[in-house]
Design brief:
4-stranded antiparallel beta sheet, alpha+beta, 28% helix, 5-stranded antiparallel beta sheet
Length: 254
């Protein structure tokens, strides 16, 4: 079921968006060479407890997950691009790290993701990350009242295709509200003018993610982490966005 939020409810979602942005900023700043992914998860967990927020991940067990996630932040490294399950791994110089975090504050959820390079960066990684960020900006700009979901999808795809990246549509954006994942699905490729109408009150996560040389993925033996089929690196950018009468409102902006 797709739910539309009142202007008052969208205002009530702002604290969740601010908190998610703060956690991503702190964990990204802490992601240095030699830092363990489990340390980043503990940091995010501590921030959740201090804020009195609730994790959207720790008990999350959708059909595609092998078991409850058990951690509070997704940490995807190099050829991992989505749902990276934190584990005993120390970050190395040049690692491409994607951090994806969602939390509930006062019953409202926000969801966001960033990708960074730890230490020295390869030009190819910076280009990939920049493409996801520009695709996110384009998708948000297309999230106008009176439009369609396909307008967002087409805008994201145009940026990716211009850089020569192919697109996987198995996982993409989604509705956000009282829970982390809801309808409608917001694929990262599609046709403008098609799909669910963008009405004021619709709140969605827009999340372009691309792999360097493939659009095929497989699930790691941990039952969660999604990796590229050819070992190439991936990057991921995401914001929670409300459609308003005045245009898109980014709730998870830093």
């Amino acid at each position: 079921m797709i739910e539309l939020r009142t202007p008052a409810e969208i205002e009530q979602m702002r604290p969740a968006g601010r908190f998610v942005a703060e956690v991503l900023a702190e964990t990204a700043a802490a992601a240095k060479v030699g830092v363990n992914l489990l340390e980043l998860d503990r940091l995010a967990h501590d921030l959740i407890r201090r804020r009195g927020a609730e994790s959207c991940y720790i008990d999350y067990h959708p059909s595609f997950g092998a078991s409850p996630f058990g951690k509070v932040i997704c940490t995807s490294v190099n050829d991992a691009v989505l749902h990276g399950l934190p584990h005993d791994y120390r970050l190395k110089d040049g690692d491409l790290l994607s951090l994806d975090f969602a939390a509930s504050v006062d019953g409202w959820v926000a969801d966001s993701a960033v990708s960074i390079v730890v230490g020295s960066a390869r030009d190819e990684d910076l280009r990939l990350i920049d493409t996801t960020r520009r695709a996110l900006t384009a998708g948000i700009a297309a999230a106008q009242p009176g439009g369609r979901i396909g307008d967002i999808s087409a805008a994201i795809a145009a940026v990716a295709h211009a850089e020569g990246y192919s697109i996987n549509t198995q996982f993409g954006g989604h509705g956000v509200g009282r829970t982390m994942h809801g309808d409608p699905h917001v694929p990262n490729d599609g046709r403008a003018g098609r799909g669910f109408p963008l009405k004021p009150g619709l709140v969605i996560a827009i999340e372009p993610w691309f792999l360097e040389t493939t659009d095929e993925i497989f699930t790691d033996p941990d039952g969660w982490t999604l990796r590229s089929a050819d070992g190439s690196r991936g990057a991921h950018s995401e914001h929670t966005v409300a459609i308003t009468a005045d245009g898109p409102l980014v709730l998870s902006a830093p």
